Amino acid sequence: MDYKEILSKISDILGEELDRYLSGDKEPYMYKLMRDEQFGDVDEHQVSRKRLVYALQFGLREIGEPLREQIVRELFEQEVISREKNSFQGIGSSMEMLTDMIQPYRRPEDNALLERAKDANFDCFCGLMKDGGYGYPKDIYEYNLEAGIYMAGEMQLREQVCALVDIFKAGRLDTSGYEKLRHFAEFTQRPDDRETAVLGYYDCVFKSPASGKIMEMRGLTAAKHMILLLCDMNDAANAEELLYKHTDVLLSANGRAFYECAIKIMQTDSSRKKKIWRYVKKNSKLKAKDGTFYPICYTDYKKCAELAGDKIAVLAISALEKKEQ
Question: What is the pTM assigned to this prediction?
Answer without folding.
Answer: 0.89
